[in-house]
Structures are given as structure tokens and as C-alpha cells.
Design goal:
globular; 2 domains; 268 residues; mainly alpha; 10 helices; 0% strand
Length: 268
Amino acid sequence: MIGSFLNAFEWRFSQMIDDEGNRKILSRKKLKEISIVYGRSECVSCKHILRPMDLMPVLSWISLRGKCRYCSSPISIQYPLIELLTASLFVFSYIFWPVKINSTTSFIFFFSWLIILAGFIVLALFDFKKFLLPFLIVKPLLIVSLLVLTGCLFFANDRSFYFLHLISGLILGGILYLLYIFSNGKWLGGGDVSLGALIGLQLSSPTFIPLVLLISSIGGLLFLVILNKIKKVGFKAKIPFGPFLMFGCLIAVLFGTKIINWYLGSLN
């Protein structure tokens, strides 16, 4: 259900912003039509209002064989894939969460991670489609992270926990900002910088930052190699880097401690 909402949010939000990620000036009627709160779900082709039986996650797409019930236009496979991906990542995060969820603080922190994860999925869609990481989406996720971490100051026994997250956000955001300035925006965009700060806030230690950068760099390189094989693009082709940063964050949050302990053990 949350994956279905993310699909709708991504489409509606894309109608509200321009190619630079800034809000468009729209009429009140148009804003109500595409509003997440007031807008009705409709077919993007024929604009027919969808009924509840058309909106069942995954099952509706399968039963309709990927076509609109009313105009037979193809329904993008993005919809069931994002629904399945969201469910899988939520369950995956719960199974492999690195600490026990046995207190109010740990539950709030895990719940906030699911919110961040949902935001990552929407941001990845925008980056793959438009090479865009809208700050209008990153900003509320930054606020959620800071509010949760500030709450840890009052409820957590170990207050250094908060500061390590904050330091990680400053360092990773700072590193990406320097790369952005040094390359004059050719290596990565401004959206990657704010995303880096958001990702850093999810890391419980700055020692996870090299792991995030390593995984995202390898992921981006493999994606470029595959793209080169399929579309014969050059190795200087522009690719979205945000999704690979977010994947690196996922691995670091869930398995960072185990990976670093394994690495240090192998050195010994």
C-alpha cells in the first residue's frame, strides 16, 4: 500500500515542479486535481477515475494484464515493481536491523528509517527519470532525521549516539560539496550534496562513510558498464548517482558494523 502511495506521489509531485525542481505556478483547480490529499486516482491516459478494485497493489496490475480497464492503454510496470520493492525493503530492514527494537527510542528510530527509505525510493525514481533530486523532497526528510536525532538527546542513555550521526551528516555532505565545487558540477549535482547530508545522518558512525562511497562508486561503475553494453554509450555518459548513494546507505545501515568487523578481522 505504501509503495502504491509512493507511485502516486512521484507522478503527482512531478506535475508540480519544473525541470530544475522548483515549484510551478499552477491554478488552484490544477493543484486540487494533482493534490496528494484531495486528488482522485485516475488513468494517466484517459483520465478515468479509478475504482478501489483498480488500485489493489500488484494484484490489480496482474489481473488487468498491465492495461487500463477503461481505455486499454498500457500501465507502466513501474507500479507493481515499486510496490514490491517497497514491501521487500521494509521487511528486509526489519529482519536485518542491527539493534533490537525493544524500546521506545529504538522503535522511533526504526520507524523514521522506514520514512527515509520511502523517500529514497521516490528520489531514486526522480533521479533515474530526470537526473533530479528535488530539495523539496530531501528537505522534509532532513527535518525528520534531525527531529528524531534531537529526541535521542532526551531519551537515549548514550547521547554521543546523536552527535555521531550529526558528524557523519556534516562529513559526508561536506565531502560531496567539495567534489561538487572542485568539478564545477560536472561529477555530481547539488542534489547529491543535500542527499549526502541526509544519508550521513542515518549513519551511526563516520567510519561508515568510506563504505557508502565505495559501494556507491562500484554500483555506479557497474551500471555504466551495463549501459555501455546495452546502449553503447561512452564511459563519460551522465548517470544518476543518487540511487547508488542510497543503496550504499542501505548496506551501511544494515550491515556496516559486520562488514567493517570482517574487514578488520581479515587484516589481523
